[in-house]
Amino acid sequence: MSSRQLDLDAQLPGTYPNTSERAQMGLKLNRFCYDLRLPENRALYKSDPEGQMERYGLDGEDRRLIRAKDWLGLIQRGGNIFPLLRLAQMHGDNLEAVAAQMRGETVEQYMASRDFDMFGAAPPKPKES
């Protein structure tokens, strides 16, 4: 399918544009993750994850990826990073852990590649040429 805004044939490796097809494929997953904002849904998921995934109609592949904490796989299937982070937090992963996993790195490797001080110091100033 062509897009008026994106040349999907020229996209950067490792990017997964939110096309209408990918959004449709991820609709149930994103709804499931978005609804984890509600305390009662978090409690239901903690007590019966399989039952909660069933209630949302998640297919076998989405369930397998969730069990494996394969955040990149879920993105590739249409997951949106913002609601997906709710699910990751339910599994004990923060943004840095998710990003590291997506890059195939440890959290330490990922954080070492960042160009900022995570404890609040200003980012380094650009070097003058």
Molecular structure report:
- The chain has about 130 residues and is mainly α.
- The chain has a single domain (about 20-110), classed as Protocatechuate 4,5-dioxygenase, Chain A.
- The chain is about 55% helix and about 0% strand.
- It has 9 helices and no strands.
- The protein has helices at about 20-25, 25-35, 40-45, 50-55, 60-65, 70-75, 80-90, 95-105, 105-110.
- The radius of gyration is 17 Å and the shape is globular.
- The model has no long low-confidence stretch (mean pLDDT about 85).
Radius of gyration: 17 Å
Helix/strand class: mainly alpha
Strand percentage: under 5%
The name of the CATH superfamily reads Dioxygenase LigAB, LigA subunit
The helix/strand order is HHHHHHHHH
Q: How many domains make up the 3D coordinates? A: 1
Main CATH class? Mainly Alpha
Helicity level, as a percent range? 40-55%
Mean pLDDT: 85
CATH fold title? Protocatechuate 4,5-dioxygenase, Chain A
Low-confidence stretches: none
The N- to C-terminal Cα distance equals: 45 Å
Please state the second-level CATH architecture: Orthogonal Bundle
Shape: globular
